[in-house]
Design the sequence.
Protein backbone atom coordinates (compact mmCIF):
# COMPACT_ATOMS: atom_id res chain seq x y z
CA UNK A 1 0.00 0.00 0.00
CA UNK A 2 1.23 3.51 -0.89
CA UNK A 3 2.02 5.49 2.25
CA UNK A 4 2.95 9.16 2.05
CA UNK A 5 4.38 10.74 5.18
CA UNK A 6 2.27 12.98 7.37
CA UNK A 7 3.64 15.88 9.41
CA UNK A 8 1.33 17.17 12.15
CA UNK A 9 2.23 20.49 13.79
CA UNK A 10 0.17 21.66 16.73
CA UNK A 11 -0.76 21.62 20.39
CA UNK A 12 -0.58 18.96 23.04
CA UNK A 13 -2.54 19.33 26.28
CA UNK A 14 -3.37 17.37 29.37
CA UNK A 15 -7.16 17.19 29.51
CA UNK A 16 -8.90 17.29 32.88
CA UNK A 17 -12.44 16.13 32.34
CA UNK A 18 -15.54 16.21 34.54
CA UNK A 19 -18.74 14.56 33.45
CA UNK A 20 -21.81 16.52 34.42
CA UNK A 21 -25.56 16.31 33.85
CA UNK A 22 -25.71 19.95 32.73
CA UNK A 23 -23.26 22.84 32.34
CA UNK A 24 -23.13 25.34 35.22
CA UNK A 25 -24.60 28.80 34.60
CA UNK A 26 -22.23 31.76 35.15
CA UNK A 27 -21.67 32.12 38.90
CA UNK A 28 -23.20 28.71 39.64
CA UNK A 29 -21.48 25.78 41.41
CA UNK A 30 -22.82 22.34 40.62
CA UNK A 31 -21.80 18.86 41.68
CA UNK A 32 -20.58 16.88 38.70
CA UNK A 33 -19.88 13.19 38.13
CA UNK A 34 -16.67 11.32 37.36
CA UNK A 35 -13.31 13.08 36.89
CA UNK A 36 -10.55 11.73 34.67
CA UNK A 37 -7.36 12.93 33.01
CA UNK A 38 -6.24 11.92 29.55
CA UNK A 39 -3.89 13.25 26.89
CA UNK A 40 -5.36 15.80 24.51
CA UNK A 41 -4.63 18.90 22.46
CA UNK A 42 -5.89 19.18 18.91
CA UNK A 43 -2.46 18.66 17.36
CA UNK A 44 -1.52 15.64 19.43
CA UNK A 45 -5.01 14.15 19.06
CA UNK A 46 -4.82 14.40 15.28
CA UNK A 47 -1.33 12.90 15.25
CA UNK A 48 -2.56 9.98 17.39
CA UNK A 49 -5.60 9.47 15.16
CA UNK A 50 -3.47 9.45 12.02
CA UNK A 51 -0.97 7.01 13.54
CA UNK A 52 -3.57 4.61 15.03
CA UNK A 53 -5.43 4.55 11.75
CA UNK A 54 -2.37 3.47 9.80
CA UNK A 55 -0.43 6.63 8.93
CA UNK A 56 3.28 7.32 9.11
CA UNK A 57 3.32 10.36 11.38
CA UNK A 58 5.77 12.94 12.78
CA UNK A 59 4.59 15.45 15.35
CA UNK A 60 6.07 18.89 16.00
CA UNK A 61 4.84 20.85 19.03
CA UNK A 62 6.14 22.55 22.17
CA UNK A 63 5.84 21.35 25.75
CA UNK A 64 6.82 22.93 29.06
CA UNK A 65 9.65 21.57 31.20
CA UNK A 66 7.22 19.64 33.41
CA UNK A 67 5.71 16.25 34.06
CA UNK A 68 2.57 16.87 31.97
CA UNK A 69 4.59 17.70 28.87
CA UNK A 70 7.04 14.84 29.30
CA UNK A 71 4.21 12.40 29.78
CA UNK A 72 2.34 13.71 26.72
CA UNK A 73 5.41 13.23 24.51
CA UNK A 74 6.14 9.80 25.97
CA UNK A 75 2.61 8.69 25.12
CA UNK A 76 2.97 9.93 21.54
CA UNK A 77 6.24 8.05 21.26
CA UNK A 78 4.59 4.90 22.60
CA UNK A 79 2.09 5.18 19.74
CA UNK A 80 5.00 5.06 17.28
CA UNK A 81 4.87 8.76 16.35
CA UNK A 82 8.17 10.50 15.54
CA UNK A 83 8.56 13.20 18.25
CA UNK A 84 12.18 14.11 17.60
CA UNK A 85 11.40 17.78 16.98
CA UNK A 86 9.08 18.54 19.88
CA UNK A 87 10.51 21.75 21.42
CA UNK A 88 10.68 22.53 25.14
CA UNK A 89 9.75 25.92 26.61
CA UNK A 90 11.83 26.50 29.77
CA UNK A 91 9.48 29.22 31.05
CA UNK A 92 5.86 28.29 30.37
CA UNK A 93 3.97 25.23 31.56
CA UNK A 94 2.64 22.58 29.18
CA UNK A 95 -0.87 23.06 27.81
CA UNK A 96 -3.85 22.08 29.94
CA UNK A 97 -7.54 21.85 29.02
CA UNK A 98 -10.42 21.92 31.49
CA UNK A 99 -13.32 20.06 29.94
CA UNK A 100 -16.88 19.41 31.05
CA UNK A 101 -19.02 16.89 29.19
CA UNK A 102 -22.79 16.94 29.69
CA UNK A 103 -25.38 14.18 29.46
CA UNK A 104 -26.03 15.07 25.78
CA UNK A 105 -22.34 14.27 24.99
CA UNK A 106 -21.63 17.95 24.30
CA UNK A 107 -18.49 19.50 25.73
CA UNK A 108 -17.29 22.85 26.91
CA UNK A 109 -13.52 23.40 26.89
CA UNK A 110 -11.17 26.05 28.24
CA UNK A 111 -7.54 25.68 27.15
CA UNK A 112 -4.55 27.24 28.92
CA UNK A 113 -2.14 27.05 25.95
CA UNK A 114 1.07 27.54 27.97
CA UNK A 115 4.02 26.35 25.88
CA UNK A 116 1.80 25.70 22.84
CA UNK A 117 1.43 29.47 22.61
CA UNK A 118 5.19 29.99 22.22
CA UNK A 119 5.77 27.59 19.31
CA UNK A 120 7.44 29.99 16.90
CA UNK A 121 8.92 29.82 13.38
CA UNK A 122 12.44 29.33 14.81
CA UNK A 123 11.24 26.19 16.65
CA UNK A 124 9.81 24.91 13.40
CA UNK A 125 12.98 25.68 11.45
CA UNK A 126 14.79 23.02 13.51
CA UNK A 127 12.20 20.51 12.29
CA UNK A 128 12.63 21.31 8.61
CA UNK A 129 14.02 17.83 7.77
CA UNK A 130 10.54 16.53 8.63
CA UNK A 131 8.97 18.98 6.20
CA UNK A 132 11.28 17.85 3.42
CA UNK A 133 10.17 14.24 3.71
CA UNK A 134 6.46 14.91 4.36
CA UNK A 135 3.78 14.85 1.69
CA UNK A 136 0.90 16.13 3.86
CA UNK A 137 1.19 18.86 6.51
CA UNK A 138 -1.70 18.99 8.98
CA UNK A 139 -2.22 21.95 11.36
CA UNK A 140 -4.85 23.47 13.66
CA UNK A 141 -5.12 26.83 15.46
CA UNK A 142 -4.01 26.03 19.02
CA UNK A 143 -0.53 27.34 18.20
CA UNK A 144 0.17 30.98 17.21
CA UNK A 145 -1.43 31.90 13.88
CA UNK A 146 1.77 33.64 12.61
CA UNK A 147 3.55 30.27 13.06
CA UNK A 148 0.78 28.50 11.14
CA UNK A 149 1.10 31.12 8.38
CA UNK A 150 4.87 30.72 8.27
CA UNK A 151 4.70 26.93 8.01
CA UNK A 152 1.91 26.99 5.41
CA UNK A 153 3.91 29.42 3.25
CA UNK A 154 7.07 27.31 3.48
CA UNK A 155 5.22 24.06 2.88
CA UNK A 156 3.29 25.43 -0.10
CA UNK A 157 6.56 26.70 -1.63
CA UNK A 158 7.86 23.14 -1.34
CA UNK A 159 4.65 21.86 -2.96
CA UNK A 160 3.51 20.00 0.13
CA UNK A 161 -0.22 19.53 0.61
CA UNK A 162 -1.24 21.71 3.55
CA UNK A 163 -4.39 20.75 5.45
CA UNK A 164 -5.77 23.14 8.05
CA UNK A 165 -8.36 22.29 10.66
CA UNK A 166 -9.26 25.87 11.66
CA UNK A 167 -10.06 25.11 15.30
CA UNK A 168 -10.55 26.86 17.62
CA UNK A 169 -12.37 29.29 15.36
CA UNK A 170 -10.54 32.39 14.13
CA UNK A 171 -10.60 34.57 11.05
CA UNK A 172 -7.68 33.91 8.71
CA UNK A 173 -5.67 35.95 6.22
CA UNK A 174 -6.17 35.55 2.49
CA UNK A 175 -2.51 34.62 2.17
CA UNK A 176 -2.93 31.68 4.56
CA UNK A 177 -6.03 30.47 2.72
CA UNK A 178 -4.16 30.66 -0.61
CA UNK A 179 -1.49 28.32 0.74
CA UNK A 180 -3.97 25.61 1.76
CA UNK A 181 -4.73 22.47 -0.18
CA UNK A 182 -7.65 21.54 2.06
CA UNK A 183 -9.57 23.14 4.96
CA UNK A 184 -11.92 21.40 7.41
CA UNK A 185 -14.02 23.90 9.41
CA UNK A 186 -17.11 22.86 11.34
CA UNK A 187 -20.27 24.95 10.92
CA UNK A 188 -19.27 27.58 13.51
CA UNK A 189 -15.74 27.90 12.18
CA UNK A 190 -17.06 28.15 8.61
CA UNK A 191 -19.31 31.03 9.66
CA UNK A 192 -16.40 32.88 11.30
CA UNK A 193 -14.25 32.37 8.21
CA UNK A 194 -16.90 33.41 5.69
CA UNK A 195 -19.63 35.40 7.44
CA UNK A 196 -22.13 32.86 6.05
CA UNK A 197 -24.28 31.02 8.58
CA UNK A 198 -24.02 27.30 7.83
CA UNK A 199 -27.14 25.36 8.73
CA UNK A 200 -27.84 23.09 5.75
CA UNK A 201 -26.39 21.85 2.47
CA UNK A 202 -27.23 25.03 0.55
CA UNK A 203 -25.53 27.35 3.04
CA UNK A 204 -22.59 24.90 3.32
CA UNK A 205 -22.15 25.17 -0.46
CA UNK A 206 -22.13 28.97 -0.23
CA UNK A 207 -19.53 29.00 2.55
CA UNK A 208 -17.39 26.34 0.86
CA UNK A 209 -17.49 28.25 -2.44
CA UNK A 210 -16.36 31.40 -0.61
CA UNK A 211 -13.32 29.55 0.76
CA UNK A 212 -12.64 27.85 -2.57
CA UNK A 213 -12.65 31.27 -4.28
CA UNK A 214 -9.97 32.38 -1.79
CA UNK A 215 -7.70 29.69 -3.22
CA UNK A 216 -8.33 26.59 -1.05
CA UNK A 217 -8.52 23.60 -3.41
CA UNK A 218 -10.77 21.37 -1.31
CA UNK A 219 -13.26 22.46 1.35
CA UNK A 220 -14.83 20.01 3.80
CA UNK A 221 -17.33 21.40 6.30
CA UNK A 222 -17.98 18.97 9.13
CA UNK A 223 -21.61 19.03 10.23
CA UNK A 224 -21.73 16.83 13.35
CA UNK A 225 -24.02 13.82 13.22
CA UNK A 226 -25.16 14.78 9.70
CA UNK A 227 -21.70 14.04 8.28
CA UNK A 228 -19.54 16.30 6.14
CA UNK A 229 -20.08 18.59 3.18
CA UNK A 230 -17.46 18.31 0.46
CA UNK A 231 -16.51 20.73 -2.32
CA UNK A 232 -13.83 20.02 -4.89
CA UNK A 233 -13.42 21.26 -8.47
CA UNK A 234 -17.02 22.36 -8.84
CA UNK A 235 -18.50 19.09 -7.57
CA UNK A 236 -20.04 19.01 -4.12
CA UNK A 237 -22.35 17.11 -1.78
CA UNK A 238 -22.92 15.64 1.65
CA UNK A 239 -21.12 12.51 2.84
CA UNK A 240 -23.37 11.16 5.60
CA UNK A 241 -21.96 9.81 8.89
CA UNK A 242 -23.00 6.52 10.52
CA UNK A 243 -25.67 6.91 13.18
CA UNK A 244 -24.31 6.15 16.68
CA UNK A 245 -25.16 6.86 20.31
CA UNK A 246 -22.68 9.54 21.38
CA UNK A 247 -21.37 9.74 24.95
CA UNK A 248 -18.60 12.34 24.46
CA UNK A 249 -17.91 14.35 21.31
CA UNK A 250 -14.47 15.58 22.49
CA UNK A 251 -11.86 15.01 19.75
CA UNK A 252 -14.41 13.83 17.17
CA UNK A 253 -13.14 16.57 14.85
CA UNK A 254 -9.55 15.58 15.60
CA UNK A 255 -10.28 11.95 14.81
CA UNK A 256 -11.98 13.05 11.58
CA UNK A 257 -8.92 15.05 10.50
CA UNK A 258 -6.42 12.35 11.43
CA UNK A 259 -8.44 9.72 9.57
CA UNK A 260 -8.93 11.96 6.56
CA UNK A 261 -5.22 12.59 6.08
CA UNK A 262 -4.39 8.88 6.48
CA UNK A 263 -6.85 7.85 3.79
CA UNK A 264 -5.55 10.60 1.49
CA UNK A 265 -1.97 9.49 2.23
CA UNK A 266 -2.92 6.05 0.94
CA UNK A 267 -4.18 7.52 -2.31
CA UNK A 268 -7.86 6.95 -1.55
CA UNK A 269 -10.36 9.19 -3.34
CA UNK A 270 -11.71 12.22 -1.54
CA UNK A 271 -15.15 10.67 -1.18
CA UNK A 272 -13.67 7.45 0.26
CA UNK A 273 -11.44 9.45 2.58
CA UNK A 274 -14.34 11.47 3.98
CA UNK A 275 -16.41 8.30 4.45
CA UNK A 276 -13.49 6.77 6.36
CA UNK A 277 -13.09 9.94 8.45
CA UNK A 278 -16.81 9.98 9.27
CA UNK A 279 -16.61 6.35 10.36
CA UNK A 280 -13.57 6.92 12.60
CA UNK A 281 -15.15 10.02 14.18
CA UNK A 282 -18.41 8.16 14.78
CA UNK A 283 -16.52 5.52 16.78
CA UNK A 284 -14.66 8.16 18.82
CA UNK A 285 -17.89 9.77 20.06
CA UNK A 286 -19.05 6.48 21.58
CA UNK A 287 -16.18 6.63 24.10
CA UNK A 288 -15.07 9.20 26.68
CA UNK A 289 -12.05 11.47 26.41
CA UNK A 290 -9.79 12.77 23.64
CA UNK A 291 -6.90 10.42 22.79
CA UNK A 292 -8.56 7.74 24.90
CA UNK A 293 -11.46 7.73 22.41
CA UNK A 294 -9.50 7.52 19.16
CA UNK A 295 -9.98 4.15 17.41
CA UNK A 296 -7.36 1.87 15.88
CA UNK A 297 -7.67 0.84 12.24
CA UNK A 298 -8.63 -2.73 13.11
CA UNK A 299 -11.64 -1.42 15.03
CA UNK A 300 -13.09 0.08 11.86
CA UNK A 301 -13.77 -3.30 10.26
CA UNK A 302 -17.44 -2.76 10.78
CA UNK A 303 -20.17 -2.23 8.27
CA UNK A 304 -20.09 0.01 6.28
CA UNK A 305 -16.37 -0.37 5.70
CA UNK A 306 -15.20 2.16 3.11
CA UNK A 307 -12.23 -0.09 2.23
CA UNK A 308 -13.89 -3.51 2.03
CA UNK A 309 -10.82 -5.23 0.55
CA UNK A 310 -8.65 -4.76 3.66
O1 LIG B 1 -10.43 18.89 20.18
C1 LIG B 1 -10.39 18.44 21.51
C2 LIG B 1 -9.22 19.03 22.21
O2 LIG B 1 -9.41 20.42 22.35
C3 LIG B 1 -9.03 18.54 23.63
O3 LIG B 1 -8.23 17.40 23.69
C4 LIG B 1 -8.45 19.74 24.34
O4 LIG B 1 -7.15 19.54 24.78
C5 LIG B 1 -8.54 20.88 23.34
O5 LIG B 1 -7.33 21.11 22.72
Sequence:
Amino acid sequence: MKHQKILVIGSSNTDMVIQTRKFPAPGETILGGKFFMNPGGKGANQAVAAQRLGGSVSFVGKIGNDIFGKQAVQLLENEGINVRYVAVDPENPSGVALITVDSKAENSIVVAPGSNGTLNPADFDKAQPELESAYFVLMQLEIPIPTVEYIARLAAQKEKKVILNPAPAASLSDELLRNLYLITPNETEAEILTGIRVSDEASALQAATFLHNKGVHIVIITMGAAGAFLLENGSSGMVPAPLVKAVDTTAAGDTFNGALVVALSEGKSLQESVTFANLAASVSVTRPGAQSSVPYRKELNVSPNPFPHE
